[in-house]
Specification:
By secondary structure, the protein is of the alpha+beta class. The protein is built from six helices and 24 strands.
């Protein structure tokens, strides 16, 4: 027997097939356990998209090819056998295309934000933006990162490779809950911070409002009241509102607006300790702390597994100080001649066209505020219009867009529609592979019937 035939025999052996199936069973069971304990993203990175899974699938394909070659020269009765094996290989090829080149993300549409042309996916990256004047930023550095597969540990910190910036990632923390603290700042670009208390006989709400820079608008919804501070502001007539205003001297004042009123019902200066009667549900507003220039810093609570409130975070060091950077957040770093923004973000993939929200409609269950159905009227790619509902996705170019959820703002009104976006380049191959397998099954019954016929 030639060397070629001996190699084919070994690869086509039943013993190897049993070993491959056993390894696959272990990997799938491990992935199921990891997903149950953590989440699907962690299971994908640690198990389903691991080198072990790819190696096992490669060995499976090799074994399937060897089994077909071992039957050479083929006869008509081998047709069912050949079709079934080729079908499995085609399905695995389609799955590989999906894994490597597929897109599975979300698209957030809001009238306030205008057209969107990028899909947000779960993959992450580090982006560094720089500016000479603190206004116009350019991207200076970007790098895809996967801290599940390649965690950063305290004994092997990572220095960002950007000229003029000294920024170190000391540790990656996969599951954490931020715990904010606010301190006075000496930086001229820092915004203000107010710690307030809103209370009545039944409720006592204490929280911070912090501007990360002097231009940012911040807002919080507390019961029937929307509290806003800083930034470009327009009166929202549909809500009761408390507006904090800060003048050029750094002094703070307030204005109280009732629903459907564009002029304040009450206004005046504020100092720490001042008490203001709002007139809404006997709520009283008290200013506990005011910092004209402030910076918010974070401590974290580490978790062993994810929760709805948890987020990945990075322990970082810059300008001689340590802090934490959370996913989809940024840190502003000042140097002698530039301002840098270091952002840890979900990656954004270009759609190839723009899409904007025309109208979002929500239908509630009778007598409740719970959504029964919702849909988005959208405009895309130069004036095309479509209605995307929970059961009617939009298929355009290579993407399927599904109505996934929505975001609520003050008074429970919907402020944004969230679409699920999917592109699967391996879909057609999976269909073809399944069809080929079905042909093999039909041929199997055909040849069996011929064999037993008198």
């Amino acid at each position: 027997m030639s060397l070629y035939r001996r190699i084919v025999k070994k690869l086509a052996s039943l013993k190897l097939a049993v070993v491959i199936l056993a390894i696959l069973a272990v990997l799938i069971a491990t992935g199921t356990l990891v997903e149950a304990r953590y989440d699907a993203w962690t299971a994908k990175n640690l198990v389903y998209a691991s080198v072990w899974m790819y190696a096992t699938m490669g060995l499976l394909v090799t074994s399937l090819v060897a089994v077909m070659l071992d039957r050479w020269p083929w006869k008509p009765r081998h047709a069912s056998f050949i079709f079934a094996h080729i079908g499995i290989i085609i399905i695995l090829y389609g799955s590989l295309l999906t894994q490597l080149f597929g897109v599975d993300g979300t698209l957030r549409l809001s009238k306030a934000d205008g057209p969107v042309k990028e899909v947000t996916v779960q993959d992450t990256e580090i982006n560094v933006y720089r500016s000479a004047d603190g206004a116009d930023y350019e991207r200076a550095y970007t790098e895809p990162v996967n801290f599940i597969k390649d965690p950063v540990t305290p004994d092997k910190p990572v220095l960002l490779k950007t000229k003029g910036l000294d920024f170190e990632i000391l540790e990656s923390i996969p599951y954490s809950i931020p715990q904010m603290r606010v301190e006075a700042s000496t930086q001229t670009q820092s915004g203000a911070a107010v710690r307030f208390q809103l209370t009545n006989q039944n409720v006592s709400e204490v929280d911070w409002m912090v501007q990360r820079n002097v231009f940012e608008k911040v807002e919080k919804q507390v019961g029937p009241v929307l509290i806003t501070m800083g930034g470009l502001w327009e009166r929202t007539l549909e809500v009761n509102e408390i507006r904090f205003n800060i003048n050029e001297k750094g002094e703070i004042s307030y204005a109280l607006y009732r629903k459907e009123q564009s002029k304040p019902e009450k206004q005046g200066p504020l100092k720490e300790g001042d008490l203001v009667e709002t007139g809404w549900m006997n709520l009283q507003l008290r200013i506990l702390r005011y910092l004209p220039k402030a910076v918010q810093k974070y401590d974290i609570k580490r978790l062993e597994r994810p929760t709805p409130a948890s987020s990945p975070s990075l322990h970082v060091r810059y300008n001689g100080q340590e802090s934490y950077l959370f996913l989809n957040d940024y840190i502003k770093v000042f140097t002698q001649d530039r301002v840098y923004l270091v952002a840890y973000q979900n990656r954004r993939v270009p759609l190839g066209f723009e899409m904007s929200l025309v109208e979002f409609q929500k239908t509630n269950y009778p007598g409740t505020m719970r959504a029964m159905a919702y849909q988005s009227s959208v405009e895309y790619d130069g004036g095309n219009k479509a209605l995307i509902s929970m059961n009617e996705p939009l298929k355009y170019k290579q993407y399927y867009l599904y109505q996934a959820s929505f975001e609520q703002g003050p008074n429970g009104a919907a402020i944004a529609s969230v679409l699920s976006v999917n592109h699967d380049p391996g879909r057609i191959w999976k269909y073809v592979g399944s069809l080929v397998m079905c042909i093999g099954i039909v041929l199997l019954f055909y040849f069996k019937k011929r064999k037993i016929s008198p």
